[in-house]
Amino acid sequence: MSTSPTRIAVFGAGYVGLVTGACFAELGHSVVVRDIVGARIDALRRGEVPIYEPGLDDLLARNSERLTFTLDVADAIEGADFVYVAVGTPPTYSGDADLSAVWTVVDELPVIDRPCTVVMKSTVPVGTGLRVRHRLDERGLEHVGYVSNPEFTAEGTAVKDFMRPDRVVVGAFREEDGDGVAALHAGIDAPVVRCDVASAEMIKLAANAALMTRISFINEIANVCEATGADVVRVAEGIGLDRRIGPSFLRAGVGYGGSCFPKDSLALKQLAANSGYHFQLLNAVIEVNELQKRRVIGKLHHHLGSLRDRNVALLGLAFKPHTDDMREAPSLVLAGRLLAEGANVSAWDPVVDGIDLHGVRMAETVEDAAAGADAVVLVTEWPQLAEVDWSAVAQTMRTKIFVDGRNMLDQEMLRGAGFAVEGIGRAAAGGAA
Ligand code: UDX
Questions:
Q1: Which residue owns the Cα nearest ligand 1 atom 17?
Q2: What pTM does this model have?
């Protein structure tokens, strides 16, 4: 084990890499973050944070003396005790994870002649660690350790999730390599799950799959609620109080999006399929989510008939609040479907801007987006939407339809403001006809 400040090189200055680097610096380690995008490294050196993540700017500023940024591999590796891999693993056209950025990092590692451990933070298919191990061995780097240390950070709460996690997972081939990575987390009060590399890789994929399964489950319950006269909000409360079930991830809505769930579910589906297993439940979870994104369209048809030349305002575009991330956002599918049906689409989001949504009119305010609309659809539950004067908004609309795609607002209040209201799975609340 090394003495005096442990030196960590983090490859990748995206959401995961920056949060990992900043949090390890906060824990007292010396960190160098390496990326291949010059503009990003320049911005970080100037103290600018290239992504929107609450608390990250403070953390980077507070630990600036322990954090450096570089484009240069040799610079990053110089004296590093740990090399964290936090590069993107986007899906390929077939849905498999594209590991080319991971391989580039492994192949770029210079000859290292002292103790050092490569740590995988990126989400990778089960079996990747073993392949990296072989590649390191082939390159004469047998003494370099390999550990899987997956991240469970959600966007918007990533810093808190890293510093106060439910658990830290450390999967290693050699006990001592795992000991080293576990020790890096000293100061974090959480159980450490020690296991083999394949199991650590699977824990990450299975945790995400379990969360997605819960979302698709409650969305299907919501759809049955609509058909049978129940209210999914009460149902979720009622089942969530059962300690065996718990209350998390039981919010029905317009489906999940983001940089992880859609990508990781496809990767797990492909991983299973490549191993000869048809993961039926996961396939259903993915399909339910795709259908859920489109259900709002049916609700609008129900009230408005044809959507041709109808004006529809989308409130919130990011895949969830407190992020500017539009990856796989349900709003993209909704906007596309509405435009395809001939509707005029306006949109408001407090953070997302500059995105070209091909034919969507971006508005500065909720009021501007909704003016003259036939329907507003609450897509992302931004807290600002609770502060809007909905009576005033309703007065400016052509037809007063409100679809609350996140069951965020009080339906009685909205009805009082003059709206015909639809939620998701809220027949008993007077939502669906
Ligand atoms: C997720 C995991 O939470 C995190 O552990 C993993 O590392 C990366 O993927 P993230 O994508 O940032 O994090 O967001 P999360 O807050 O989990 O939400 C994912 C999606 O599910 C969002 O679109 C959200 O709106 C949706 N969701 C979440 C629901 O529709 N209902 C819920 O009850 C919870």
A1: 154
A2: 0.94
